[in-house]
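To start, one record:
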Amino acid sequence: MKRYIMQLMNIVQKLEIYRLEHRISQEELAKKLGVAFSTVNRWLNGKSKPNKIQTYHIQKLFLFKGKK
């Protein structure tokens, strides 16, 4: 369980780096992931963590470099 929590923290950090490197807003990132802006905002502010399905789509975004 501890490892899973560490992976989630790591994926949120990577998501923020991805967002900054691609110069996209939290709203644009939310659209790419199919979630609400407030969801992305909560992740990046540490108020919540992505669930397994959301984590899958985040990892998919990294694999395809956001080309959708």
User: Anything to note?
Assistant: The chain is about 70% helix and 0% strand. Residues 1 and 7 are 10 Å apart (CA to CA).
